[in-house]
Backbone:
């Protein structure tokens, strides 16, 4: 019975600790970094640039491979009593959001954050570059680009398609966006779209890229039609994409650190999720001769990785 | 001394003589043994295209001799190599060159050129309207340069207006390239940007709407572009200089040059007039 009473007392004390407000005083808010998997290079980059920028105390929790585990996060919260949590990756966010609604969370590297149910105390840096940013970059690199094709599903990317259409007008690119409802719509959509465009913009969409076979068919179709693909991830360069543009991880880490400082000081702005401010560009130069789209060589200093 | 001992001594001397022929010649570039290095570090650009840059430069320089291009992302590591006595050529920003002069005697040999100009200015740009420079106090500034370079130039630009205090209060967000810094301001991700004149002109062409939303608040002094320098010129220096000077003509080094934002090199003596 005594053991049972001790357990109850311990639990009550733990609950008390979790429930009280921030008992810390003085400068330097304490951040707990919860990393979805610290062995993943892009997550390491975020953690490193955050750590280099954030002035306060930092403790770390690596969730490692496996499913989201909010128990690990609860234990870390109990032990470290952070003022703010930085979540690197979607898994870390899901675990932290499940563990606490009280401690403010700043997330980074969460794929398509709009699919997450953001808690009331959540802030973050989006993982995807805004359409405006991407189309401006396309125009900068390919001055002759006039008509850009886009396949998308209304379920996942209607907002992006609308934003892109407007952004295209600002840079003189006509966006020919074709909505698909099922994976089986994609092949016909490509047959309709490809003859009318100078390039195809590939965005992250689970209906358009439903499986490996769909990916292969897409690249076979674009190659046959001699239409270059401008993609959202460097991995597609291996399949023959002409260009890949992604958000820069180190910049996102810095942005997350500045946001964590503001959030910790109770000065979070109205915009809870910010777009990433830097980009990484891979140009598959060996594919250039296959297409009539001309490349602006003066823009080569903007290319991070050149595949030759 | 017996025959065996003499033979042994002679053998040892032969080994010493042969070994000394293989040792690197001290001073200057282009040693007889091992690869001679060309070291590169640029605090004015955050772009990390090192693997591609090395491939392009190594491929070009191989036609002239046993040379290797080595880019650095860390100022400290670059300066460590600068301290060494090994013969090497250094590619560095003119701003960095000026800060190093008192510590390491170096001679500038070439300056990079782009569009006929060997110099460029940095601009402080913000989103309209900017009521006054004081409104930037404590705000974020996006820059492709590293923190030291950015704050140094900010101090110069704002110092002219008597607002060095504002420069010292700003928080630097390093971004990979100048156009990223401008887009960050245009999209409201940063309050200001330190960027190049060239990047602002590019934005005018590419996205006039964003260009019109921005305002240049000040300019830095004209700064020479990337410099080629040595600590001590030697026999191999001329070979490498010739290799670099030829980069601007023909297609062989086109990618290498454009990746560092240049289209040619000109002879440059520090303190001398350089054509714009």
Residues:
């Amino acid at each position: 019975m005594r053991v049972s009473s001790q357990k109850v007392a311990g639990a009550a004390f733990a609950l008390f600790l979790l429930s009280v407000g921030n008992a810390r005083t003085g400068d330097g808010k304490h951040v707990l970094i919860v990393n979805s998997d610290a062995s993943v290079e892009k997550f390491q980059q975020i953690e490193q640039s955050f750590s280099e920028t954030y002035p306060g105390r930092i403790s770390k929790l690596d969730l490692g491979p496996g499913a989201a585990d909010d128990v690990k996060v609860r234990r870390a919260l109990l032990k470290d009593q952070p003022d703010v949590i930085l979540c690197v990756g979607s898994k870390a966010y899901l675990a932290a959001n499940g563990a606490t609604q009280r401690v403010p969370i700043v997330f980074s590297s969460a794929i398509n954050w709009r699919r997450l149910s953001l808690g009331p105390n959540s802030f973050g840096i989006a993982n995807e570059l805004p359409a405006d940013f991407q189309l401006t970059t396309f125009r900068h690199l390919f001055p002759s680009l006039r008509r850009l094709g886009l396949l998308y599903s209304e379920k996942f990317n209607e907002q992006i398609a609308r934003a892109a259409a407007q952004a295209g007008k600002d840079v003189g690119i006509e966006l020919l966006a074709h909505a698909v409802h099922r994976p089986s719509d994609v092949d016909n959509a490509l047959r309709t779209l490809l003859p009318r465009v100078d390039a195809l913009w590939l965005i992250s969409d689970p209906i358009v890229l439903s499986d490996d076979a769909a990916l292969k068919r897409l690249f076979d179709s674009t190659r046959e039609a001699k239409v270059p693909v401008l993609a959202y991830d460097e991995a597609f360069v291996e399949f023959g994409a002409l260009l890949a543009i992604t958000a820069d991880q180190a910049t996102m880490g810095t942005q997350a650190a500045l946001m964590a400082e503001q959030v910790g000081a109770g000065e979070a702005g109205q915009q809870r999720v910010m777009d990433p401010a830097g980009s990484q560009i891979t140009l598959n130069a060996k594919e250039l001769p296959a297409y009539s789209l001309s490349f602006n060589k003066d823009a080569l200093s903007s290319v991070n990785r050149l595949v030759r | 001394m017996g025959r065996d001992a003499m033979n042994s001594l002679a053998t040892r001397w032969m080994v010493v003589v042969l070994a000394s022929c293989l040792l690197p010649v001290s001073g200057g570039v282009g040693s007889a043994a091992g690869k001679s290095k060309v070291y590169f570090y640029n605090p004015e650009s955050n772009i990390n295209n090192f693997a591609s840059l090395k491939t392009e430069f190594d491929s070009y320089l191989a036609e002239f001799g046993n040379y290797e291009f080595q880019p650095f992302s860390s100022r400290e590591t670059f300066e460590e190599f600068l301290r060494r006595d090994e013969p090497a050529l250094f590619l560095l920003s003119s701003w960095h060159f000026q800060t190093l002069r008192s510590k390491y005697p170096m001679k500038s040999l070439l300056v990079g050129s782009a569009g006929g100009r060997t110099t460029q200015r940095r601009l402080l740009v913000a989103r309209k309207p900017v009521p006054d420079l004081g409104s930037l106090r404590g705000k974020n500034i996006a820059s492709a340069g590293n923190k030291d370079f950015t704050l140094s130039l900010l101090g110069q630009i704002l110092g002219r207006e008597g607002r060095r205090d504002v420069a010292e209060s700003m928080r630097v967000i390093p971004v990979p390239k100048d156009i990223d810094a401008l887009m960050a301001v245009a999209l409201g991700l940063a309050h200001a940007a330190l960027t190049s004149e060239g990047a602002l002109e590019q934005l005018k062409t590419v996205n006039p709407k964003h260009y019109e939303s921005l305002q240049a608040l000040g300019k830095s002094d004209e700064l020479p572009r990337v410099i080629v320098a040595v600590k001590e010129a030697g026999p191999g220096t001329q070979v490498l200089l010739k290799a670099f000077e030829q980069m601007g003509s023909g297609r062989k080094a086109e990618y290498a040059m454009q990746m560092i934002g240049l289209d040619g090199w000109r002879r440059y003596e520090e303190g001398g007039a350089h054509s714009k």
Remarks:
- Chain A touches chain B through 35 residues (CB under 8 Å).
- DSSP finds nine helices and 13 strands in chain A.
- Residues 159 and 223 of chain A are 28 Å apart (CA to CA).
- The longest helix of chain A spans residues 2-19.
